[in-house]
Design a protein that fits this description.
InterPro entries: ASD2_dom (IPR014799), Shroom_fam (IPR027685). Pfam families: ASD2. Belongs to the shroom family. One of its GO terms (cellular component) is apical junction complex. Keywords: Coiled coil, Cytoplasm, Cytoskeleton. There is one protein chain. The protein is mainly alpha-helical. It has one domain (about 1-170). It contains 4 helices and no strands. It has helices spanning about 1-40, 45-80, 85-130, 130-170. The longest helix has about 40 residues, at about 85-130.
Length: about 170
């Protein structure tokens, strides 16, 4: 029953992932349309600023999500430490925790810098775009970020349930 339940949950997660990927493709199309509009109306240096912001948006959000996920796994491992855990493993986990914590703080600084750049780009675009186009741009940035987060979350859940299923199947003779 448990195996069946895990397979069913995985099937649902795979379907959800396909929906998110479909939404991501739609968002990318909107991004291409916006890019063409911005290229047409902005000065080359302003267009370059826009493109750098959009490119960095995905990189920084992905970096933050990756670091947060890795940090959570290390924290879970640290919580499982008991008297049987050897000192070397404890030290290794603590060092990884410190390193990942510092890296995540650095990534948060990058995100704050990116947010400032986003406000500058938004100000530039406000000079050239109609209210509707500006609203589309803001929705694009918000949806792009949300989809990245949702996609990462689904990937983590799928990985977790696949591991659970694999472990369960191995434990049954």
């Amino acid at each position: 029953e448990l195996i069946s339940s895990l397979r069913s949950k995985l099937q649902t997660l795979w379907e959800d992932r396909e929906l998110v990927l479909s939404e991501a493709r739609e968002c990318a199309e909107l991004g291409k349309e916006l890019e063409a509009t911005v290229r047409d109306v902005c000065k080359p240096n302003e267009f370059e600023r826009y493109m750098m912001f959009i490119g960095d948006l995905e990189k920084v959000v992905s970096l933050l999500l990756c670091l947060s996920s890795r940090l959570a796994r290390v924290q879970n491992a640290l919580r499982k430490i008991d008297g049987n855990t050897d000192a070397e493993e404890k030290q290794s986990l603590n060092e990884r925790h410190k390193l990942l914590s510092r890296q995540r703080e650095d990534a948060k600084d990058l995100k704050e810098n990116l947010d400032r750049r986003g406000r500058v780009v938004s100000g530039i675009l406000a000079k050239y775009l109609t209210d509707q186009q500006l609203q589309d741009y803001r929705r694009f940035v918000q949806v792009k970020t949300s989809l990245l987060i949702e996609q990462k979350d689904l990937e983590e859940q799928i990985r977790f349930f696949e591991e659970q299923l694999e472990n369960l199947e191995k434990s049954i003779p």
